[in-house]
Amino acid sequence: MNPYKQKRRWKFILFFFALLITGGSLWYTHYLVKNISKAEHTRAEVWAKSTSNIAALSNLDDDYVTFIYGIRDSLAVPAIVADQNDSIIYYRGLDSTKTNIRTEESKKKKYDPAYFKDQLREMKMQHQPIILEGKKRWYVYYKDSLLLTQLRIFPYVQLSVIAIFLIISYSVFSSSRRSEQNLVWVGMAKETAHQLGTPISSLMAWVELLKSKFNAEKEPLVLEMENDIKRLEMVADRFSKIGSEPVLKNHLVYDVVTDFVNYFKVRASDKIKFLVSGDARVEALINIPLFDWVLENLLKNAANAINGYGKIDIRIINNPTKKQVLIDVIDTGKGIPRSKFDTVFQPGYTTRKRGWGLGLSLTKRIVENYHRGHIFVKDSELGKGTTFRVVLKSNHKDEEGVV
After folding, report:
1. Is residue 167 a part of any domain in this protein?
2. What pLDDT, in 10s, does the model give residues 102-140?
3. Most CB atoms within 10 A, among 67, 114, 172, 297?
């Protein structure tokens, strides 16, 4: 199985189990809240009815009545008994600093009307009142206890804390893993460059010997061999630069692209037509060995997409308003589904049986990390072709020719 597809499958599995755990936690909390809410309704109803009944019994012993009131109030929830005009008759479980106020004008205890008004509004929003019928109609309003309120929000707080912990842990481990991968990548790249050095030097010597012994200085085959050896030198130079800060210099983008296309098209199918067009004056900060790697990967992907027959168009566009140079690589190949526009840059993603899936991932790394640019799939249509766009910072000073 493709490593990227396998990785994505595991992500979906873990995400599914995370949703399952979250759903189970919320469902069980809702179950508990529902049962406790029913119990509190019953307690509020008992408190309300006992309030009216005890108040009607005037012949009971005061100590006994006090005892009954104590038991009743210990089971009750924050509640207010009011008449149809919302005048307070009884209350319990409210803030004593708001319900017992002494003023200098009067030694009697009073309550804060605004506080009771807010409490009544909150209770009315939470539950329907319990109606007590007697000589007068009383309305018992109540609200959830502090325990029930905390239980409602507890799972969300708990899941949020767990999520934050997992995100931080994932970020730390991902950063550590990327650092290890970078060290391995840099080590392998530098070792590859070192290993290539000796055979390249030998090949250069053999070519020079061949030219001098057979007087083949202008022999086309020898010249092409020399070009390939120079190409190997450039490849080794590329690998040696991995992990170090590359030197960027001002270059005419059109010339850099044209030089590489001229080299590449000789080694591609004769049935592929290459076309380079656009602003020939625009400059950008480029490291040629690394940027040629970008062009190589893009052109190879384009050539594979058109199966050796079609057209590859490279357009260089100057955008001085944003101080950018845009390089569009357009092919007439099979296209990419829109859902894969980001996926194609993932390491390990490939549609070829013998592919490693590292070309576009490496291209993205070179463009974004080393050239401080951007690369993306600008457009694609199945059966018609794909356009990759590379965005670089431009040093072109001419304000004409804005596209």
Report:
1. yes
2. 544 544 555 677 888 888 888 888 888 888 776 678 888
3. 297
